[in-house]
Amino acid sequence: MVNIVLPVDFGDKTEQLVEGAVKFAKQVNGRIFLIHVTPSDIGFAIGDMGFQYFPEVEENEIREELVQLNKIQQRILAHDVECEHLLKQGIAKDIILEHAQDKKADFIVMGSHGRSGIYDVFVGSLTKGITKDSKIPVLVLPIHE
């Protein structure tokens, strides 16, 4: 069986990415390891008193993200594709690459919005970073408008 790591960010193109990954998994007899990485600092805010940590904000955000991951997993399973999921906090690129190694992934499936140039300078591109540093083949699916 082919192991596929599928990072998701719950953006507006996540559904297209999942559909493409499911199609690919069916073609190669694959199973999907769904992963979402949330920042380590989601419970922190800065205000008049400096940095403050609000654990309830972090807990609520993680709970909502787990609900979204579960829904995506159920959609994948409904297509008769094996799927498990993981939510971790930290630096997305590092965690995704580590997860791919842990799962002995044959592929990492990422999406590309088709942006380039100045967007990458200011925002960066997770897909670009993964393809640059991965020792595992990366399948980049176009998910344009």
UniProtKB/TrEMBL annotation:
<protein>
    <recommendedName>
        <fullName>Universal stress protein</fullName>
    </recommendedName>
</protein>
<dbReference type="Pfam" id="PF00582">
    <property type="entry name" value="Usp"/>
</dbReference>
<comment type="similarity">
    <text>Belongs to the universal stress protein A family.</text>
</comment>
<dbReference type="InterPro" id="IPR014729">
    <property type="entry name" value="Rossmann-like_a/b/a_fold"/>
</dbReference>
<feature type="domain" description="UspA">
    <location>
        <begin position="3"/>
        <end position="142"/>
    </location>
</feature>
<dbReference type="InterPro" id="IPR006015">
    <property type="entry name" value="Universal_stress_UspA"/>
</dbReference>
<dbReference type="InterPro" id="IPR006016">
    <property type="entry name" value="UspA"/>
</dbReference>
<keyword id="KW-0963">Cytoplasm</keyword>
